[in-house]
Fold each of these.
Amino acid sequence: MKINWTYWLCQFAGWFGMVTIETINYTFFIAGKFSMALLWTFISYAIAGIIITHAYRFLLKKSNFFQKKAIRIWLLAFISTIIIASVISVVNFLPAIAGDARRFFNDLTFIDIAGTIINWMRYVGVWIIIYFMYKILQQNNAILQEKLIVENLAKTTELELLKTQLNPHFLFNALNSIKALVIINPEQCRDAIVKLSELLRFTLQYGKDRLIPLHDEMKEVKKYLELEQLRFGERLQIEFAVDENSLNQAVPPAIILTLAENAIKHGVAKQMGVSSILVKSFIYENELLICVENAGRYVPGDHSGIGLNHVSKRLEEVYDRKAVFTIEQQHEKVIASIKTPASWQ
């Protein structure tokens, strides 16, 4: 059985601290001289206090009392202080009872009993308050830890559900491109299918990694946009403005790919003429900034689907509140931006 050394250190320090206080009190302020017999008497009281309070602690550990309401806990603390102080007081009276029981009981008064109990309540009360506060804090900490575990499990479950939704979401968009390509230009289907297979491999495997290098993410984004360019032809203009210093940064996988999908679905696909997509990444003041710009009109209700919900959840999971995700309208362009702390290796 593992010994709780901190508990026993506190027990001995507290009760033998009482011995020191009482010995000094009687030596200098009551008797006026030191008495070895009195010292041993106080030591016996300390040993009794250790045994009684340890037994009381043992009983408390067997119960679930600290899960009850605070008023019941502190009512028990008060009653326990009186009972334990009374038991120690009985131990205090035992030597006198053993010497001459009849005389002791004849001389005993209510004031003697009450005074002795109240005297011991000072020390027992301190023990009770410290121990009860420790147990309450321990209980609250356990509840907090359990709450955090449950919240983390809920977040993980929700993210896993989003991932299972995102793969069919991506596949549906990509197959639409292939379908259009089969009719328009069958010879380019082979290249499109290769790109699609590579993209599907990426989307199926990205859940294994919490973060990936930005240059790996950008490669998949280029594949996707090239696949869409085969579908839209000259209607889709693609541009990348990627700072070389940003390529070694780590990002959640498929997060920029999702923004690119969103730009195609809600921007390019709804435009009649030529549309452009600009993907930018750069570092500014120790922050990584990623932007996906597309021609179109921002309508909040149209941008609240699975994909963008996935972006928000992933950023929250990885960066807590240190990342910012925004979508805004600037003139004739919709700009989706991600700002995260820069990671330096």
Note: The beta strands are 212-213, 236-242, 250-251, 275-284, 287-295, 324-330, 333-341.
Amino acid sequence: MQEENKSYTSIFKASAIFGGVQIFQVFIQILRSKIVAVLLGPAGIGVLGLFNVTIGFIGGITNFGLGTSAIKEIAIASEEGESNKISETLNVLNKLVWFTGLLGMIISIVFSSLLSQLTFGNTNYTYAFIWLSISLLFNQLTTGKLVVLQGFRKVKDLAKANLLGSLFGLIIVFPLFYFFGNDGIAASIIVYSITLFFFAWYFTRKIEIEQMHLSTSEVFKKGKVMLTMGFILGISGLITILSNYLTSIFIVKLGNIEQLGFYNAGIAITTNYTGLIFAAIATDYHPRLSALSNNSLVKEAVNQQAEIALIILTPLILVFLVFGDILIRLLYSKDFLSIKPMISWILIGTFFKLFSWAISFTFVARGKVKLFFWNELLANVYVLIFSLVGYYFFGLIGLGYASLLSFIIYSIQVYILAQKSFSFSYEAVFIKNFLIQFGIALLCYFGMTQLDSIFGYLLGCILILISFLYSLRELDKKINLRRFLKK
């Protein structure tokens, strides 16, 4: 029991450290979103979103999934404690990120005119995509640095790198939006990527790496495992990006660029709002899971991780369900209030995302890369179909319906695959807590939509308090809060 408490404490401590940084990053993102919304409006957010999704698409083609596959290799080498193996892995990774980063840069330059035509329907943004190729290189170099910190579980340094990169990135790009408006969007993406790289480099320079002179053939030979796994993971990520890209193009064609701006704002809110918890937990979870050696330990780790995520996440979801209008005004402006229903359904679906999220890491951690690929491919197919159909018939709120339905199906799919592959199952305590917290969230949503304003807010506040106290009690059972806070 004491060993189990230590495990929960370790999970919560890592989540708290990086979660604090994530909260600060969300605050920075709030300021950035507010600046873009005020200075550029929905159309500007739409252009920014199209640039990001296109660059993400190219990155997905060329990055070979090194941001995920390398973590496993570094975590294993670090766990074994062999200095030569660690140095070799890091040297190979450093060469591979340069190769893949330059590959992305070249593709963006060569196909700049085509990218502009496909994304915006004209060639007016050809030079923008040429310049944006710089961000592709620096994004991949940054990934290489952050992977090292994450693989060695240097949570504090990783947190500092992300925090300072985001802060100074915002400070530097603000004048670009202010003085150049939409013309400064491409430059802001480039400057932001360079800023993130600088701080990632700064914190990894403290890790001593024995330099090895490796030929190109040796790099690819020794990096074969990373590249093979990374290629499959990269294709999977590429399919996700392609799905998002097609959804964005569909919204523009059926609606307009402002509708895309609303959609991107809604996704940004839900991703940043709940993503801070997922990102905080995954920072330590992925390398820890990769180092585990058998199914029983993996099952225990997944259950513990899912319980902590549920405890932290539920009150945050309820706060948005109740005070979403206020938060949207704060994050953007009153012009964006129409996205509240869409966001609410996405957040309700987040419970099922949480249910499947903790499990999905196990496929890569256990070396089931092909299973992971086919699982994600199938999911992206129905996510795309649901999104297109949802928007066609119901508009923005239809995208919320699609998200909820996709999360439900995906959670069932992942659970069945994990059960058949390595006899995984959730423990009764997690299922009980999941049903209780999900039930509270449904009551909160229907109270806010069906009751008069004052009664809805009153019921919502009561439910937030109940959920918070329940989460606090469950957390105390697992880590002994008083002793944790003393430490």
Note: The two ends are 19 Å apart (CA to CA).
Amino acid sequence: MLRGKHFRLVQETIAIETIGEKRVALHVPAKSIVTVESGPRPDDSRMIDVSWKGRLIVMFADDVQKRGEQVSSSRNLLN
């Protein structure tokens, strides 16, 4: 279960953001902190909802786990 965990990306990673009714691909830079809000979903173990800079985006769970390092919620997450 990834929900509630924080990851610092060590490599730029692609994500999807919904703006209005459009889905837009974006790049989340290396060193960014993302927080898993939900997922993976039972019907799709690949996608998770994450928050990043106050935005709710969707990323591949595998990308977050392979291109990120889990950080403790008690650490200063802004570094």
Note: The mean pLDDT is 89.
